[in-house]
Amino acid sequence: MANTFAPLPPVPDHPALEHEILELWEREGTFFKLVERNRGGPRFGFMDGPITANNPMGVHHAWGRTIKDVFQRYKALRGFDERYQNGFDCQGLHVEVEVEKSLGLDSKRDIEEYGLAEFAARCKERVAHFAGVITEQSKRLGMWMDWNNSYYTFSDTNIEFIWRFLKEVQGRGWLYKGHRSTQWCPRCGTSLSKHEQAGEENYVELEHPSLFVRLPLKERKGESLVVWTTTPWTLPANVAAAVKPDAEYGLTREGLWYRVEEKLDPDAYVAKVRGEELVGLEYEGPFDSLPAQEGVVHRVIPWDEVSLDEGTGIVHIAPGAGADDFELSRVHDLPVLMPIDESGRMLPGYGELEGRTTNAVEEPVIESLHERGLLVDVGTIVHRYPICWRCKTPLLFRVVDDWFISAEEIRGPMLEANATVEWTPSFYSKRMDDWLRNMGDWNISRKRYFGLPLPFYPCSCGHLNVIGSRAELEERATARLEGLQELHRPWIDAVTIRCEECGGDVERIAEVGDAWLDAGIVHFSTLGWGNPQRVEHGNATGAAAGLTGADLPDHSYWEKWFPADWVTESREQIRLWFYSQSFMAVTLEGRSSYRAVLAYERVRDETGREMHKSTGNAIDANEALERMGADVMRWIYCAQPPSQNINFGYGPADEVKRRLLTFWNSVSFFVTYANVNGFDPAAPRSELKALDRWLVSRTSAFVRDATAAYERYSTPAVVVAFDRFVDDLSNWYIRRSRRRFWEGDATALRVLWKALTTALQVIAPVMPFLAEHLWRSLVSANESIFLAGWPEAGEVDDTLLTEVVAVRRVVELGRQARAASGLKLRQPLRRLVVAGADPARSHAGEIAEELRVKDVEFGDVDASELRVKPNLPLLGPKLGPVLRDVRVALQEGRFEALEGGRFRVNGHVLEPNEVFVERVGKEGWAVAADDGLTVALDTALDEELLREGRVFDLIHKVNAMRRAEGLELTDRIRLWIPDEDLLAYADRIKEDTLAVSVELGELRLEKA
Ligand SMILES: [Zn+2]
Ligand SMILES: [Zn+2]
After folding, report:
1. What are the strands, taking DSSP E only, across 432-504?
2. How far is the CA of 182 from the centre of ligand 2 (A)?
3. Labelling 405: which of 108, 447, 617, 944 has CA 20 to 30 A away?
4. CA 112 to chain centroid
């Protein structure tokens, strides 16, 4: 007999088989064959959101990368022509901070001493290294991409496309330089924008000093304002105190002004006024003797936003050290004192504090206030405080010049564009709208080094020159163009240009761009927007030269692939990449750059906590790939509803492996019997039995449902459909057909083979390795499952499927009833009554067989009865001596149920509150019910049933003996049994144990 199918081991070794498949794909060039096969087919445009090539891929990246691969594979199986360009994000603060760490640099001065050219070289090396690492990890995960043609956001080409965008923005009058108070990272030495900082993770609980400081009023001897602050370093820059005009303020006996607190005794105040009455009063500043404070007149100003919930109701205002403070300085024409430099150290003009960090001045500030009797109270406070999204340093406020793109005119068009996008989960669409409605102007400048060089050349004549391309730069350059090896600092800084207005020489500003410009432009830079002709390796320019072979296509290519049909990234990208790409696309083309989005939440550890290297619960992606396997990881990601965090870990992985085993065992079962019976899938098929027709229909329904799930980007629905199908396949079709497999029924084998191989095709995008591995064994050793296309869903007999669903529910409940009654399944029973499962009516025979009952009846289940008991404390006084007779009558069931829950007993009417009523199973019946379906098993046993129970016990025992003696599935036996009664059932025993003879004797068997 030909051994057609390779036998399977008891459990799959996922990592081992995955390595084999990776080699196979590599050797056979499967991916490129697939791309070739689909060329010219219908298009499915996917745009990859670039992963930062800065560290290895983590398990949190693997979620998104799995989803990307699942849908690219699915669409490819359906014949779609696709773009497989992976993207790497390569410049900006992410990369700089990591390079600083690796070089032991800790400030901008360190970087400048190290040298910008060298620093740029190290940044490029780091990107090149980790791009390589991530590529290998992604391949291991099973991600199919055109890995030799990845795009790199630091290429000169990408930079030039951003320049074009910025020139367009300037043309519309949206570009401006703003003088603003901004959140500032003293370590990175740069301002940070709202969209970078908006995430929850950018806030931590920190402890800070809490100071109540007295500010003596100049005109009112003995009276002082009291202000509250948690930032002592800002007090030397104080210029005003704000009160809420319509709030009530009171003067205490100690001469201190606070807002009036209702909970205090009204007599606590010697005077009360409205805030507006304090406005205009002058006071002595807390640090008037500092040179920086020379000439500053401190006064009380009105401010409606003063919080009455915390502090004293009087707010210390330092416009150089706070955002609201700065706004108030514009309204009230206040001086702006800037206390700190870009590294967060006190500037000259602040006396002894000069050169110290904001933390280091806390002590001397408090000490000085204390000495001068200005400190009313001092303590500490723990509060939520912003930290740098990149380096985790607590942020400060500084007033600086930054470059902004006004969001006012683009807001409406962006909202309109978002309305055309199909979001999954759908409620994220509203999140995007909320972000767009509230977004401020886009702060695009960073005072850093290795980033997009902003092409802004402000001339002393007042004209702002913006360069829109490298060609324009070359044409207008007046010096040092020859040293421009790439569009990065320091080389670009040396190139001066001619002012288009006055002809003078102009230098570039020093700032670089927000990294989200880099990622936002890729729908244009990688697709060749406006490019007259294709340039081979045209995206392998500048810093990307040598790292990729990516071409720069021409404009017709862009027209073909823009907008993307689909993008996917994590939900936080709403305020990051989804926002920046939309901003740029709506500006340049007036529409969204994507038609559909799938956004997903975060990866947590298996107990739901955030993963951190420091807490030891982080899981290394390489380790996970080799310990649980890529398919298992992918399964975990795909099973997860994207709107909820994933709890990822080895525990959940083991659970997935257990569940996958049902499918594995079904394939293994098939292989065993197919080999025993020399099954040939190519042989013509004979007539189908009812159960076969059901499985064919069930398989079609699975294809239909899973296809619909893929079409709506729902991997969880695909996984659920697969799980249910495998359960039906294994626990219904195979279970119910065992005898046919033993007998080598070719039709059963064929129907099972078709169901299994179809299931492989459907689940292949989710578990490409296992699917390929089993496909090579079941279908074709030489051709990939990914070249086999997508299975057609055949006709579905929904009526039949509904019937079997009902049958399976009846059987399930029947088993529960048996378990509750303590009767084992091998014991035959007389009768089962089923209520509420009409679709199962025509399958009574199957139910009887499954539950081992002689008869299945459909109808009302009258297997429970009413029990009524007297409520003695009420009935005793009411009935007196006749209570005894009523009690007996109730016990014996001699009562009549009346309307409204009353009962008549022995001529007495009992009210509902005078009795306790319950329903109990009738003696001799086991009942189980669920959701409108009830089954009742008649548990009465008679001689015949007991004898049959012994027959099944015997069969069970004999089959255990067969296994114990190592007999093959097909071996025939001779059997001796000790129980003469059971000889009458010899035929049944022979059939179920493959015995050729059954004789009386001590229990034993021998191979026939
Ligand atoms: Zn920082
Ligand atoms: Zn000029």
Report:
1. 442-443, 445-446, 456-458, 464-466, 477-479, 496-498
2. 29
3. 108
4. 40
The residues, any chain, with a CB within 8 Å of residue 163's CB and separated by 6 or more, are: 455, 466, 467, 468, 469
State how far the Cα of 758 lies from the Cα of 697, in Å rounded to an integer.
12
Structure tokens at 790: 């997508």
Q: Which of 844, 850, 886 is nearest to 869 (CA)?
A: 886
**Residue of 731, 792, 783, 781 whose CA lies nearest to 758:** 792
φ/ψ (deg, to 5) at 225: -80, 150
CA distance 282 to 882: 96
Average pLDDT on 77-96 reads: 96
Instruction: Give the residue-averaged pLDDT of 687-710.
Output: 96
Ligand nearest to the CA of 396: 1
C-beta of residue 605 within 8 angstroms of C-beta of residue 617: yes
AA identity, residue 392: K
Distance 462 CA to ligand 2 centre (A): 6
User: pLDDT tens digits for 942-961?
Assistant: 999 999 999 999 999 999 99
Residue 309 burial (C-beta neighbours within 10 Å; 0-12, 13-18, 19+): exposed
Closest CA to 447 of 341, 538, 367, 322: 341
Distance 506 CA to ligand 2 centre (A): 8
* E strand or H helix at 300: strand 298-302
SS3 482: helix
pLDDT band at 290 (very low <50, low <70, confident <90, very high): very high
Residue among 297, 306, 319 nearest 274 (CA): 306
Distance 461 CA to ligand 2 centre (A): 4
Give the least confident one: 249-263, 491-505, 576-590, 700-714. 249-263
The SS3 of residue 709 is helix
Position 483: which residue type?
G
Query: What would the mean pLDDT of 708-712 be, rounded to a whole number?
Result: 97
Q: pTM (2 decimals)? A: 0.87
* Percent share of the chain, pLDDT over 70: 99
Checking if the pLDDT of 426 tops 90, the result is yes
Ligand 2 centroid to Cα of residue 504, in Å, is: 5
* DSSP 8-state symbol, 547: T
| C-alpha 684 – ligand 2 centre gap (Å) | 86
| 8 A C-beta contact, residue 736 and residue 693 | no
Sheet holding 396-405, edge to edge: 190-191, 175-185, 396-405, 442-443
At position 129, the amino acid (one-letter code) is H
Going from the Cα of 464 to the center of ligand 2, the distance in angstroms, rounded, reads 8
What integer best gives the mean pLDDT of the chain? 94
Beta bridge partners of 445: 513
CA distance 424 to 403: 34
Distance CA 370, CA 351 (A): 17
- DSSP run (H or E) holding 725: helix 715-728
Please check the confidence at residue 344 and state whether its pLDDT lies above 90.
yes
Q: Which residue has the tokens 């292989």?
A: 671
Closest CA to 80 of 27, 21, 110, 40: 40
Ligand nearest to the CA of 192: 1
* Beta-bridge partner residues of 926: 937
**pLDDT band for position 64 (50/70/90)?**
very high
Q: Which ligand is in closest contact with the Cα of 388?
A: 1
